Protein 1
Amino acid sequence: MKFSGKNVLVTGASRGIGSEIAKGLAGFGLKVWVNYRSGAEAAEKVKAEIISAGGEAEVIGFDVSDEAAFIEGIKTIVETDGELAYLVNNAGITNDKLALRMKNEDFMSVINANLTSVFTGCREAMKVMRKKKFGSVVNIASIVGETGNAGQTNYAASKGGVIAMTKSFALEAASSGIRYNTITPGFIATDMTDELSDEIKAGFTAKIPMGRFGDASEVADATAFLLSDHSSYITGETLKVNGGMNMA
Ligand code: NAP
């Protein structure tokens, strides 16, 4: 796959979908900044895997919901590499409860981690990328942001917000040569979905036309396409990676 830029920051790249995105992009020749919040050891392992496969990577730990830390992280990258060409806002959490039992702090913890953080990243990336009149950002939302899900009012609001916000960034940045797109994964086998009971997993699987959970590498492939030169005329788009769920 062809990439005109040289480096990428992947948030939440120590595990799951983020680590597959990081490894995939390194395989296409990008220098990858592997972000994590608490899993320093896991992030170092991702870096080591990339380097042993012949790629280039650095680890950069910060909490994406901490605005100052995110700004500082991007500053470090630009001071080191002279640019930030690509950003993948992947880090995310769940804090599931039925709405009647959900306190505002439960709601806001997910909004801050999944939505406000993506706003910070998109804004700071735009400041840097517009100087070179080039950049591409992919935000990882969720099918739940399109359909809603019982027990996830906070998560659905955060991911629906990411979908709408990405389109607004795309409109504001198109004339600066910067593209913003969203991926909405369906159910992907990671630690996040491993928390679900076998019964709930079976219930979701029954609703997936392809009859299985997705693999993190399948989200990584779609992410690489949307970042790359191969999608150069696509911006503000939402790409579903969900095995055929929610085709409307
Ligand atoms: P995961 O296995 O739980 O991994 C989450 C990653 O995000 C970890 O690397 C974690 O780092 C990092 N992270 C969480 N909060 C962070 C923060 N505040 N600052 C920096 N890093 C943070 O999750 P996943 O399943 O790979 O999900 C990745 C993304 O895809 C999320 O945005 C999720 O909402 C979305 N998604 C997942 C699915 C699915 O079925 N798995 C479906 C749709 C969308 P630490 O380990 O260091 O905390």
Protein 2
Amino acid sequence: MQPLRDERFSWQTEEPRGAALDATADGQAAAAQLWSAALAALQGQVTRPIYETYLRETAGVRLSSDTLAVAAPSDFITEWLNRKLRPVVLRTLAELAGRPLDVTFEVAGVRSVAPAGAPEPATPAPHPPAEQVAAPSAAYVPPRLNERYTFETFVEGDNNRLAFAACQAAVEHPGERYNPIFIYGGVGLGKTHLLHAMGHALLARGMRVIYVTSEQFTNDFVTMIREGASDEFRARYRSADLLLIDDIQFIAGKEGTMEEFFHTFNDLHAHGRQIVLTSDQPPKKVTGLQDRLISRFEWGLIADIQPPSAEMRLAILQRKARALGRYVPEEVLAFIADRIRDNVRELEGSLNRVHAYAELLDAPITLELAQKALGELPAAPRRRPPLPEEVLEAVALYYQVRPAQLAGKGREQRVAHARQVAMYLLREDAGLALVEIGRILGKRDHTTVLYGCKKVEEQRLLDAGLRAQLADIRAALARAAS
Ligand code: ADP
Ligand code: MG
């Protein structure tokens, strides 16, 4: 792309004009122009749905010597842009401006703090400052939350029961039961959905809810430092009745932000305000997180969300199909549930795709149509079930026992546990019959095998550690099968 050279575009000034530009009408106009040029260029680089969903409603709001601030309508969009589109945006901006520029994404209207560098108006503003907007309480802007993410639309299952119950309890008695609540789990498993559900519930009761990703918290913190607006920052965060911080793991390693967050946390906690955090890992496993934060996160309740079982995936799809208001045959739902196993977002995405395809063809949804619609996806490797010997080997390796010990008579606890896990996986994943499993595992009776399978099944529901073990072993099996 040729850098545009046009005198009208003040973002092309050769000499940086310093951060003061930030606050001037000039800076705003330049930001708006630069971003519209970037949007035009980006339109050619992303698909239309992406453009429509994430870019159309964004606007350039401020431009300093090295950073363009872009406002978007919601947290979702800023989060997504940050995560997915940042490199493309940076490249585009550099090409347009002819120099490297950083970009920050913020939710429109949330940045209510006046930049410190802004020149004071020489004469009193034409609008009388009658309504005392300076009071920190007036600066509160409720977060924009996804309408769909409510408790009602959340499907409860064995994989998320504790997290779901904790969030509901916290909404009933904010700050009183479990504080903080720390929810962790993989991508697309409903963490953000639960945070928004809590937000909706308390907003409806007139409480102050603050929802940010840890990246936004960091951005706010950096802005606060740059602009010397610590009072505003603290007034804002410490006024929350409910503070929801999504993906707290991204705060790790950022010492200044962690320090500030530590004080925010303590202040809110001391005043009995509810704090809920999500992460991809339990606190101890987030590398770069300060120990004192880890210990605080462990004060309250830690709940994990696991990938959904086959049953749960089907239940979610049924619910979503009903919400689409369209008849989707059971076998189609089963087909989708079987393809996508560990991410609810992708599960939904597949159903939407089938739905869209049917609309396009103006045809009823059938298994054949679903296969066609999803067949266009980059071929999802159809995993074959693991072979019995692969299961034995993976289990033995994981628990550090010899495969022969699994078939042996040893009753040592570690070996016995590994053996029961092997029974469970041979049945669930390799699809062997109880009698066959007994034969492989040292001529054991099928009732012994059934007992072992049941035990793992039951323990699994109560014990996150065991679920993690199963997930790890299954991941190893999936690698072996692909
Ligand atoms: P995470 O924050 O864990 O990555 P999200 O909360 O963004 O995941 O969820 C991804 C998508 O899956 C969202 O559209 C959400 O509504 C949906 N989803 C996840 N879990 C459930 C559930 N248990 N019931 C209904 N929808 C769910
Ligand atoms: Mg999320």
